[in-house]
Amino acid sequence: MTFSNIMDSNSYQGDSSQAGVGPLIAARARMLGPASRLFYDRPVHLVRGQGSHLFDADGASFLDAYNNVASVGHGHPHVVDAVSQQLATLNTHTRYLHGGILDYSERLLASMPAEIDQVMYACTGSEANDLALRVAEMYTGASGVIVTADAYHGNTTAVTAISPALGAATTLGKNVRTVPAPDSYRIPRAELAARFAADVAGAVDDLRGAGFGVSALVADTIFSSDGIYPDPSVLKPAVDVVRAAGGVFIADEVQPGFARTGESMWGFTRHHVIPELITMGKPMGNGLPVAAMAARSDVLKPFAVGVPYFNTFAGNAVSMAAAAAVLDVIEGERLLLNAASVGAALRRDLAHVAAGHPRIGDIRGAGLYIGVEVVADPDTKTPDRAGARWLVNALRERRVLLSVCGAAGHVLKIRPPLVFSRSDVDWFCTEFAAVLGDF
Q1: Nearest-CA neighbor of 109 among 324, 295, 368?
Q2: One GO MF term, please (predicted)?
Q3: Of the given ranges (16-30, 122-136, 176-190, 193-207), which has the lowest mean pLDDT?
Q4: What is the Cα–Cα distance from 130 to 311, expressed in whole angstroms?
C-alpha cells in the first residue's frame, strides 16, 4: 500500500481482532475496501456528539480537538432546527427560484471584500476547487498551477493532480509545480516571505518554459497540510509574482475560513491580500455537504458565459438553511472572538506544559488552528513522525482526539470546533502534560 501523508500518518494499521470494535472493523474492510482509512491504533466507535465533546458506544466522553467539520459544535440545536424545518418544508435544486440561496449569498458576500461579488455553489471543497481551476484557466488562458509541496486540495481528478500530500500513488499534473511551504520553524522570519516569493518565481519560470503559462497559485492560507504555518507576511509577495505573470490567486479557505483563525472571518485577510477566487467547504454547513466558490465577477465571466454550470445538490434549500444557521451561530455566539481568546489561551498553556521538553520544537497557530512540532533533536530540528504518532495515540487512550500533518507527519494538528472552551483547554493541557511525562 502506498503511503500518503494526509491519509496515513495517523491511520489504523492493525487487524480486526480488537475487542468490541473488531466486527465493525472487519465489516468495514470487507465492504468499504482498503482505500477507506480509520484513525488511531485503536479506532474509536462514536455514537453521539455535543458541542466539543464526543461519546462512544460505551458512553465514554472524548474531547474533540480535531473536527472543523462540525465548526459550531456537534449537534448544535440551532443548526438542527433550521435543517429539520427546511427539510420538512421543501428541498429542491437551484433551477427553481428560492429565497434561501439569495439571502445566504448576500450574507456570505458581505463578509468578503467588495471586489468579491459573485458566488457559485458546490457540495464539497473538492468540487469548489475543481471549479476554481476551470474558472482560472478560462480567465487567464493558461493552465500552469503552483501549489505547496505538501498541499491537499481535494479528491476529484483535477484537484488530486494538485494535491501532493496524497502520496506517490497520485501523479501530479504535468502543468503543476510545487514550492516548499513557508516553514517558519526552520527559516528565519526575516527571510520567510522573500524565500517563498523566490520559490514561486522559479515555478513561474519553469511553467512558462514548459509552455503552460501561469493560471493560478492555489494556497490554503494557513498551510494546514504542510504543517500549519500562520505567518501573515508570506503570501502577498508571492501573489504579486503570480499576478505579474498573468495568473490569479485561489485562496482555499476550507481549513482557515469561517472564523477559524480568530482574526477575521477568512484566512486570507490576515495576509492583506484579496484573492480573485475563494473556495470553501467543510465548516460551511456544520456537517452537511455544502461548498462554494466566490469570485470577482470579471474573473468569473469567461467561464460563466461560456459554460452552463449546474450541480444538482449544490445550493439546495436544506444546505442553504444549514449554512445560514452556521453564520447565525458564528455571529450570535461571537465565535470569532472565542477562537481568538481560547486559541491564545491554548497556545499559552501548551507552551507552559511543554517548556523544557526537548522533543516539542515549536507551538504555533492562529485562533483555533494550532500546530505542535515534534522533533527528534531540537538542535537539528529533525522531524519525528514516530513520536508524533505516539503522542496522538497516547492522547486517544486518554480520550483526547487530534491528528497530525506536515511533510513528515510530525506536527500535531489541533483544530477543534469553534465552541472549544476554557475548560476544554484545561482538559486538553492536563492530558497533554500526562502523556509528555511518558514521552
Answers
A1: 295
A2: transaminase activity
A3: 16-30
A4: 13
Beta partners for residue 49, in sequence order: 54
* Per-residue pLDDT tens over the stretch 367-418: 999 999 999 999 999 999 999 999 999 999 999 999 999 999 999 999 999 9
Angle at which helices 189-209 and 235-244 pack, to 10 degrees?
A: 20
C-alpha cell at 20: 468490541
Looking up cell 484579496 gives: 274
The structure's pTM equals 0.94
Residues 6+ apart with CB under 8 A from 209: none
Instruction: Please give the backbone phi and psi of residue 170, each rounded to the nearest 5 degrees, phi first.
Output: -100, 125
Identify any residues that bridge with 286 across adjacent strands, giving them in sequence order: 288
Cell triple for 77: 440545536
Q: Among positive and negative, which fits the CA dihedral 396, 399, 403, 408?
A: negative
Alpha helices in 141-221 (DSSP H): 157-160, 189-209
Which residues contact residue 248 at a Cβ distance below 8 angstroms, ignoring those fewer than 6 apart? 136, 139, 140, 215, 216, 217, 242, 275, 276, 277, 299
Q: Which of 310, 274, 308 is nearest to 115 (CA)?
A: 274
Quick one: pLDDT at residue 396? 96
* Cα dihedral sign, 51-53-55-59: negative
CA dihedral over 62, 66, 69, 70, signed as positive or negative: positive
Q: Which three cell numbers stand for residue 276?
A: 480573485
d(CA 29, CA 27): 5
Q: Which residue has the cell 500552469?
A: 144
Beta bridge partners of 432: none
314-345 exposure pattern, b = at least 16 Cβ within 10 A, e = fewer:
bbbbbbbbbbbbbbbbbeebebbebbbebbbb
